[in-house]
Amino acid sequence: MVTIQKVNDSEYLISLSPNSSLVGIYRVIFLSSITLLCGGIGIIFYFFGAVLILPFAGLELIILFTAFYLSFRWSSNKEKIYLSQDIVRVEKGINKAEYSWEEFRTFTLFNIKKKSDDSIRLSFRSKGKDINIGDFLNEDDKKILKEEIKSIIEDLNLKAY
Predict the structure, then answer these.
(1) Three-state secondary structure along 61-113?
(2) Which one of 78, 111, 119, 153 has the lowest number of neighbouring Cβ atoms within 10 Å?
(3) φ/ψ of residue 20, rounded to 5
(4) 62-72 burial, b if ≥16 CB within 10 A, otherwise e?
């Protein structure tokens, strides 16, 4: 998901996050329903004499919760791109900025690489170093991000003169 916010005439904030179909309380409801269903079936079979069903149901729930935890953690990734008249700053992280990169805008190039499978990779380049942005976005969101950054850069360039 791409969100653009105009802070003032010469500053923009672009927030990026992966698309997530299961958010908030709906995660809890979904995992609770699976736990009740699988645990209930395991307990019923336990009382009918199939003792080994219950530990395997527990193992299944542990694997399921681990997979969902990893998926939810990945979907919590966020990137913030600050574009102003003077600087370009990229911050990446889950709950806080775990990685931050900042460079003067005049020394920074917005780079678009098209791969052989028609997917694109967006990055900022300065001093021989590429900072990839939006790697977790789908192709439609990457195209939106590309067009938005191009229009922001054009707008900032017009205001500079």
Answers:
(1) HHHHHHHHHHHHHHCCCEEEEEEECCEEEEEEECCCCCEEEEEEHHHCEEEEE
(2) 119
(3) -135, 125
(4) eeeeeeeeeee
Distance, in Å, from the CA atom of 28 to the CA atom of 118, rounded to the nearest integer, reads 37
pTM score, whole prediction: 0.80
**37's tokens:** 């269903």
- Structural element, H or E, at residue 159: helix 139-160
CA 140 to chain centre: 14
∠ CA(28), CA(33), CA(39), 5° rounding? 120
Distances (CA, A) of 86 to 57, 67, 70: 58, 43, 38
Residue 88: which region, alpha, beta or left (left: phi > 0; alpha: psi -120 to 50)?
A: beta
The domain locations on the chain are 2-20+77-160, 25-74
Give the model confidence (pLDDT) of 140-158 as tens digits. Answer: 999 999 999 999 999 998 8
- By three-state DSSP, how is residue 127 classified? coil
**CA pair distance 108, 103, nearest whole angstrom:** 7
